[in-house]
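[User]
If only I could read backbone structure tokens as easily as an amino acid sequence. I have put the entry right below:
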Amino acid sequence: MNHLGKPFLQIISLLLGLLVLATALVGMIGGVVLISSSGIQLPSLKDYNSETETTIEVTEVKPKYLEDPAGMWMAPDWSKVELEPNAEEIKYGRDLIANTAEYLGPNGKVRKMSNGLNCQNCHLQAGTVPLGNNYSAVASTYPKVRSRSGKSEDIPKRINDCFERSLNGGILESDSREMVAMVAYMNWVGKDVPKGEKPKGVGLYEVPLLDRAADPEKGKSIYINQCQSCHGPEGQGLAKQDGSGFIYPPLWGSNSYNQGAGLFRLSRFAGYVRANMPLGATFENPLISDEEAWDVAAYVNSMERPSKDLSQDWPDISKKPMDHPFGPYSDSFPEVQHKFGPFKPITEAKSKSE
């Protein structure tokens, strides 16, 4: 009898399980009948597909990028630079751009002629980042007449402008080894851009204009929250221990760019930080808003920095940009408005006069 006990118990367990399942089904059917008899209308699959019924609204998540990445300029493949006949010049040029202070800074091993910043502090990753003030259009657009000087400028002249303004230093001879190398590197970076063209992603992001003036006080709060962890509470950056330059560059003070630099214009600084700052931001994943970019630019550029004689700049004052912070101007707007805005009235007045 013992050998029959186990199968018997299994049969009993199976029958009890079927009984529980049947009871549950009867309960469900009874519930549906009860609800139907009470007049409550149950939704059908058709109801969920009906245009007249309320459905769950799916909010489209828009991408954060500032410009569509499709078709964005990309720098040539650095791993193939050895194939170039002047590969050594190109490599030296890139090293000079990335580590300018080491070679040409206050303690430079080639020459002592600049403030300790590197070219790539303004031209990110040696001028190869989309909307990071890159060199993509240098080879394709130079030589050209620049409104700031009113003259035709070649690449060496443009490089020396940066040395005199952004690096607050001296100039290099056009035939010096360093100048030849930097020109070679910039020509290589833009080698695939057709002559006369500017690719998508060149230069800096154009931040939409505000309806108000940029506010240095608001910018100070943004600086404290977003910038001072790298650039310091006094904006003096973080110097290397060996005195060869900076890990994080100073944003004002004696070692920063002077008043003639491009970043001293609010639109340029705002465009730079909007797409590239704080550390980790890109045009595909910006970390601050348009308003924050304008305000922090106003704060940084309201701080003391080296001056420069700009009396020869903009011989045709009608060509001065809206945010050139020094008069005279061809319009009646005050100097403070040309520095901080609002800029819309300036641009609207200029468009009407043209």
Observations:
- DSSP finds 14 helices and four strands in the chain.
- The mean pLDDT is 89.
- The first helix runs from residue 2 to 37.
